[in-house]
Specification:
This protein is mostly helical. The protein folds into 2 domains: 27-196, Orthogonal Bundle (Fumarase C, Chain B, domain 1); 204-501, Fumarase C, Chain A, domain 2, CATH 1.20.200. The chain is built from 19 helices and 9 strands. The chain has helices at residues 12-20, 29-47, 72-83, 93-107, 116-127, 146-156, 171-177, 189-194, 198-228, 238-242, 247-260, 278-281, 283-305, 330-358, 380-396, 418-450, 457-469, 479-493, 495-501, and strands at residues 2-5, 24-27, 87-90, 130-132, 135-137, 161-164, 167-170, 313-315, 320-322. The strands form 4 sheets. The chain has a 3-stranded antiparallel β-sheet with strand order 4-6-7. Strands 1-2 form a two-stranded parallel ribbon. The chain has a two-stranded antiparallel sheet with strand order 3-5. α9 (198-228) packs across α11, α9 (198-228) crosses α17 and α11 crosses α13. Its main location: cytoplasm. Keywords: Cytoplasm, Histidine metabolism, Lyase. It is found in: Cytoplasm. Belongs to the PAL/histidase family. It catalyses: L-histidine = trans-urocanate + NH4(+).
């Protein structure tokens, strides 16, 4: 599978194919023409002696410092080395891979003034599985993701470090093993490689893709919990959702009804009780609101991944070179804060359903779903873990975008903190996956106690998937392993895609 990049049409689904299905990429022919024309503008203006920011001037507060022609190349490599000062744990390989992709796509738009060979090396690194080692901390999210992207650029010039075929090595060695040659940066190219929002956007795309999967899966897990607690299905009937016409709320309610269709465990108003607790009754309202946020985040990411976000921008049609602020990450900072808040709520309501499954004061099941209550604690402490993760999410969900610290001697006096927002959203997604795994473990155990033969066809399938990673609980054991095994299976297999297919044509 080959994905063609032109800087304008990349989709989130295609990024998923490049991430998870090892699709390769190529640059569209028309884009090569635009890249060539953009580069020609830079070379023409330099030959004429024009002053261009970042080409023959310093950077940031040094923008008024002129650079002599003989030092133009040295300026670019100095930029990469001096800005490669990110710190902390390295991003996952997947983030480095998406950063390569997004930077290549942005340059393919033809507004950055790079040479063809520079863009081609980005593509070659991506297609050969050379993933730069990029420390995760140190970006302010305005002037772009300078520090993280500088670590990416180091590999292109044969410096820094990369992961190649599972092994960490120098950038030079990784290029050599893949049969590639490092580039020697020319005027503007260093700045074009590091001035952009590709770190925050890469983390954001991965967080979104995983969050969307979890939000969809949460509907299925909640449906099985509804059965385990003999929940009332009246709250999911279409009439009440038609009079509050949020499409996402209606869709979630429709999915839940489809998921429990054929169940012998669900009830109606008055059978056992008149109303369920909010964590059951309000699933469409809460999960639906999460889907609204995901739609917003998706829209912003689609724009950002197909944007020119470096500075200055080269307009070959007019010959203009414009210094602006497209590197400012505010749109993604807001989106990532919003994403983190929404996914934290997926975990929050899930933990409340976990409590209802294990608390003997809230159901008629054995206390803490224990096979021998008292002698064996069962799933008592697993709820503690969920509560801890939910609490941690609350601190991570504090908006990063409300903060700003001036930099570069106050020249860059307002920044987005968008990369911090994206990193926090990513961590919230990982925590939430574990909370959903815990709910699934408890829900599956409740189903075994009630009788799996009474489950809906959908829930029988979901129960089977859970039991492939987590055997039925017959005695106390190390439940940490169950949580990690199930969370790992959910992440690897993207269960929600199969689960949603069950409801096609039923909504």
């Amino acid at each position: 599978m080959v994905i063609t990049l032109d800087g304008n049409t990349l989709t989130l689904e295609e990024i998923g194919q490049i991430l998870y299905e090892e699709a390769s990429v190529e640059i569209r022919k028309e884009s090569w023409r635009k890249v060539e024309e953009s580069r020609a503008v830079i070379e023409k203006l330099m030959a004429e002696g024009n002053v261009i920011y970042g080409v023959n001037t310093g950077f940031g507060k040094f923008s008024d410092t002129l650079i002599s022609p003989e030092d133009v190349e040295k300026l670019q490599i100095n930029l990469i080395r001096s800005h490669a000062c990110a710190t902390g744990e390295a991003f996952p390989e997947s983030v480095g891979r998406v950063m390569l992709l997004l930077r290549a796509n942005a340059l393919a738009k033809g507004y950055s003034g790079v040479r063809e060979e520079t863009l081609q090396l980005l593509v070659d690194c991506l297609n050969n599985g050379i993933h730069p080692v990029i420390p995760s901390q140190g970006s302010l999210g305005a002037s772009g993701d300078l520090a993280p992207l500088a670590h990416l650029a180091l590999v292109l010039v044969g410096e820094g470090h990369a992961i190649y075929k599972g092994e960490k090595m120098t950038g030079a060695e990784a290029l050599k093993r893949a049969g590639l040659q490092p580039i020697r940066l020319q005027a503007k190219e260093g700045l074009a490689l590091i001035n952009g929002t590709q770190a925050m956007t890469a983390v954001g795309v991965i967080s979104y893709l995983e969050a969307q999967d979890l939000a969809d899966l949460a509907d299925g897990v909640a449906a099985m919990t509804l059965e385990g607690l003999q929940g009332i299905i009246d709250a999911f009937m279409p009439e009440s959702h038609q009079v509050r016409p949020y499409p996402e709320q209606q869709q979630v309610a429709g999915r839940i009804l489809s998921y429990v269709e054929g169940s012998q465990l669900t009830t109606t108003q008055g059978d056992i009780r008149v109303q369920d607790a909010y964590s059951l009754r309000c699933i469409p309202q809460v999960h639906g609101a999460v889907q609204q946020v995901l739609n917003y985040v998706r829209e912003k990411l689609l724009i950002e991944i197909n944007s020119a976000t470096d500075n200055p921008l080269i307009f070959s049609d007019s010959g203009k070179v414009i210094s602006g602020g497209n590197f400012h990450g505010q749109p993604i900072a807001f989106a990532m804060d919003f994403l983190g808040i929404a996914v934290a709520e997926v975990a929050s309501i899930s933990e409340r359903r976990i409590e209802r499954l294990v608390n003997p004061q809230l159901n008629d099941l054995p206390a803490f779903l224990s096979p021998n209550p008292g002698l064996e604690s069962g799933l008592m402490i697993i709820q503690y873990v969920a509560a801890s993760l939910v609490s941690e999410n609350k601190t991570l969900a504090h908006p990063s975008s409300v903060d700003s610290i001036p930099s570069s001697a106050n020249q860059e006096d307002h920044v987005s903190m968008g990369t911090t927002a994206a990193r926090h959203a990513y961590d919230i997604v990982q925590n939430t996956r574990r909370v959903l795994a815990i709910e699934a473990i408890c829900s599956a155990q409740a189903a075994d106690i009630r009788g799996t033969e009474k489950l809906s066809p959908f829930s029988k399938n979901l129960h089977k998937r859970i039991r492939a990673s987590v055997p039925v609980i017959t005695e106390d054991r190390i439940f940490s392993e169950d949580i990690e095994n199930l969370a790992g299976a959910i992440k690897k297999e993207m269960w929600s895609k199969e689960l949603q297919a069950v409801t096609i044509g039923k909504q």
